[in-house]
Amino acid sequence: MRGWWQDLTDLVLPAECGGCGRSRTVLCPECRAALSGPGPSRVRPVPEPDGLPVVHAAARYADEVRAVLLAHKERGALALAAPLGAALAEAVRAGLRQVGDAGAGTAVLLVPVPSARAAVRARGHDPARRIALAAAGELRRDGLPARVVAVLRQRRAVADQAGLNSRQRLRNLAGALAVAPGGARLLREGRVVLVDDLMTTGASLAEAARAVRAAGPISYGGATTAVYTAVTREVRGEREAGPAEREAGRMPGVPGKAGTADADDVIHAAVVAAPPDSFEINRN
Predict the structure, then answer these.
(1) Are 185 and 260 in contact (CB under 8 A)?
(2) Which residues pair with 267 in a beta bridge?
(3) How far apart are CA 282 and CA 98, in angstroms?
């Protein structure tokens, strides 16, 4: 009985720090600092898959951060969802700051990339969704109307991604995700942010973005969408919206459609961690 109770306790309160192994703490101050790092940054995998939205990561996937993610994901250290969610929330805020939409008002819809059903059964939980829920709570405490909208579903079986290169991962995931019936309506209720615990090649996020785009146009009211489109296209090297377009809430290249944008312009993504070599110069 004592052994069973100890195992159950360790699921909620790990016997050691998830990052360094220090005894009797969920996450020691040093590992918590490593998780927050120098601050979120824009990340891009090389090669970058087509359709990948702008992605911000909270930390580099190495050392203590890698250990924390694996402890939560593979060893069921569920108490680590709170600090991981706080890190993810910082990455979401970084993306919103970049597009000039960091204030309250527009709802922030966190859309987790789903894990395979077999993986969820084996782990006993869905890591990305659990972290997304923690991040939404952090954002709400900061005054942002955030919520998790878990509308993505796997429409077919996929192979284990471990050991696959970037091209193989893209082929493995192509067409694998879809928005659940009724999900498209939910996605029109706020700013869509795809979220995951880790980005490696970007294949999962690119496929998630494709599925959201395929669900139909995403619409918002007011000028915030115009500002988002302007900044995103400026990053891509395209034309920035003029003052009149921003004032009218009109999208560049879409005359007469006030407050409506193509999904390519309104989706972005945030993750807890990404490989160190994918980080760009911090633009925030």
Answers:
(1) no
(2) 192
(3) 11
pLDDT in tens, 38-90: 889 999 999 899 999 999 999 999 999 999 999 998 887 888 999 999 999 99
Q: Compute the distance between CA of residue 23 and CA of residue 127 in angstroms, rounded to an integer.
A: 23
* d(C-alpha 185, C-alpha 188), whole Å: 5
Give every CB contact of residue 152 below 8 A, 6+ residues apart in sequence: 111, 112, 113, 114, 177, 178, 179, 180, 183, 208, 211, 212
Q: The pTM is what?
A: 0.76
For residue 123, which phi and psi values (nearest 5 degrees)? -80, -25
Vertex 114, ends 112 and 119: CA angle to 5°? 140
Query: What pLDDT digit, counting tens, does each position of 210-250 carry?
Result: 999 998 776 543 222 222 222 333 333 433 333 333 333 33
DSSP tag of 104: S
CA distances from 9 to 4, 12, 43, 74, 84 (A): 9, 5, 37, 17, 20
Residue with tokens 């312009």: 265
Instruction: Find tokens 């921003």 and name the residue.
Output: 246
Q: Where are the alpha helices (DSSP H) in 43-182?
A: 63-75, 81-98, 117-123, 127-141, 166-173
- 208 within 8 A of 180, measured Cβ to Cβ: no
Q: How far apart are CA 266 and CA 53, in angstroms?
A: 9
Whether 61 contacts 69, CB under 8 Å: yes
Q: How many other C-beta atoms lie within 10 A of the C-beta of residue 86?
A: 21
Tokens (6 digits) for 141 = 């405490």
